[in-house]
Amino acid sequence: MKEIVLLGSTGSIGVQTLDVCRAHNIKVKALSANSSVELMEQQVREFKPQYVCLADERSAAELKTRLSDIDIKVMGGFEGVCELARLSCDIVVNSVVGMVGLRPTLEAAAAGNDIALANKETLVAGGTLVTECVKKHGVKLLPIDSEHSAIFQCLLGAEGNRFEKIILTASGGPFFGKTRSELENVTREQALKHPNWSMGAKITIDSATLMNKGLELIEAVHLFGARPDQIEVVVHRQSIIHSAVEFEDGAVIAQLGSADMRIPIQLALTYPKRLACPAKKLSLFNVGTLTFDRPDEDTFVCLALAKKAISMGGNAPCIINSANEAAVALFLADRIRFNEIGEAVSLALDSIDFIKSPDLDDILSTQRAAEELVCTKFGGF
Questions:
Q1: Cα 348 to Cα 148: distance, rounded to the nearest angstrom
Q2: How far is Cα of residue 340 from the mean position of the Cα atoms in its chain?
């Protein structure tokens, strides 16, 4: 029986991870979240972890009172989250949202824990730091994102043969085919209506701007040792082909499946075994036609900005990621318009000092600078 530590248990990926644990009797050693007291209490009472942490101190205090009848260590604050990442276990699942996930990933790797990564900001902002730490401590870094899991699966049987190209598929989000002028006044509610996937608010907005695909491109560079020019983004509206790999002889290997995150989550937890999954099975007869289109980078500028950032290297990916986080938060709070997300990211990339070889302190200072710039210039703070 595997034993996991789950960071971000009350979010979309966290809840689906617990579905997999429930289906396969996977032991949960520790859970963390930000401030969801009620849902966390339910999860603790069902899965009976030894440790639990809420990053919000006041919420942690309330949770501790609610769980006073249970023998469990309740912690609060970000340091508590990092402590959970260091616990001895088979694998740490990092599904927290945002840059806050970077340090727990480094802590988990340094402690010798394998990592199942759903926190894309970790690799975008600190890719070199993470990959070097993983290599140094000899741990596995298994992707949970459907696209990166698909690429990982396509490469399993490569027998050492190098890929020529990675084909990274994108749903296109809710605004596929729209022009920039048509997106000027779209609402938060419209942007949160993803056509295929059920995800958290931040990643759903990123999908609407295509920033999510830009971040995934940067992730793929670090995960698979690819050059940016080896990754081709293809809009595939049906979300059936989750990504593909082309080899030097022209053969293309693709991974297909239903649009259910429990499939890549489960593979990361049970690898190298494949077990029965609660996700709906794929029927090609029901799918019918599969379509493929080029992304419109003039309208969805965030994808173009992500490509520019990874070609620059250094702290540039951290700049666009941090600026995007701040801009998306402002959009979700109805403080800026949809198109201003890309404008904010572009301004940050042009304005924040470039650092060629950033360390962790540089990454964190870059994050603060980008967030402050966006909030000042666009949020009115």
A1: 27
A2: 22
Please state, in angstroms and rounded to a whole number, the distance separating the CA atoms of residues 66 and 81. Answer: 20
User: pLDDT value at position 157?
Assistant: 82
**pLDDT value at residue 122:** 86
The answer to whether the Cα torsion of 223, 224, 229, 235 is positive or negative is negative
Residue 271 burial by Cβ neighbours in a 10 Å radius (0-12, 13-18, 19+) = middle
Euclidean distance between CA atoms 197 and 188, whole angstroms: 17
Which residues, in sequence order, are CB contacts of 248 under 8 Å at separation 6+? 161, 162, 164
With H, G, I as helix, E, B as strand and everything else as coil, classify residue 97. coil
Q: How far is CA 302 from CA 178, 297, 324, in A?
A: 15, 8, 9
Tens digit of each residue's pLDDT (9 = 90 or more) over 52-75: 999 999 999 999 999 999 999 999
Instruction: Give SS3 for 269.
Output: helix
Distance CA 125, CA 374 (A): 17
CA-nearest of 381, 378, 213 to 296 is 213
Q: How many CB atoms lie within 10 A of CB 176?
A: 18
| SS3 at position 322 | helix
Handedness of CA 15, 17, 20, 24 (dihedral sign): negative
For residue 364, give every residue at least 6 positions away whose Cβ sits within 8 Å of its Cβ, in sequence order, or none. none
pLDDT in tens, 199-225: 778 889 999 999 999 999 999 999 999
Whole-model pTM: value is 0.91
Annotate 25-49 with b (16+ C-beta within 10 A) or e (fewer).
ebebbbbbbbebbeebbebbeebeb
43-to-71, 88, 313 alpha-carbon distances in Å: 15, 21, 40
Q: Are 246 and 167 in contact (CB under 8 A)?
A: yes
